[in-house]
Amino acid sequence: MKPHILDTLHQARSALDALLANPAALAAIGDAGDALVKAFRQGKRVFSCGNGGSMCDAMHFAEELSGRYRLNRKALPAASISDPSHISCVGNDYGYEAIFSRYLEAHAGQGDVLLAISTSGSSKNILAAVNAAKALGVTVVALTGRPGSVIGELADIDVCTPGGQYADRVQELHIKVIHILIESVERELFPENYA
Questions:
Q1: 104, 133 contact by CB (below 8 A)
Q2: What are the mean pLDDT values of the chain's consecutive 10-residue runs (195 residues total)?
Q3: I need a surface site. Which of 3, 28, 71, 148 has the fewest CB within 10 A?
């Protein structure tokens, strides 16, 4: 067996163990789940955004809510900011930093929630989205990977999951958090599915 296989799995386990031993991060995950439940109960919408692999995570988060996660239930109003025509239009006309904030200006409102995903916690277009969301009265949940990041500091709730030297460990923790958030929503809104 190639040594990097076991090394990678041990690194992933160490990152998960560090998250399990971080009471502040675990509490933030619970708070984020509560914010999502509150928004859905009030008939509000949930948006998500990220770059690269984080955009894929944002898309996965939204489709599991509007589609299906584990069991059949009512669709929930969630959307990722990932439409190529919107991104290319806004990127061309206003610059790449505005691709997420411009979407929120068009679609988001008071009481909605934004899941803003940035492993570095400093992505300029995510920062612009956070600022736009705050101006609109949107609750911001950040998924970051560095303590004290600018995005984390601005967010209403910062779920910070440091994963080690590289972003891939952070992304692995982010997808675990995303699945926990979706399950939290389902357990609260559709408890009969978990009876």
A1: yes
A2: 91 95 98 98 98 98 97 96 98 98 98 98 98 98 97 98 88 98 97 89
A3: 3
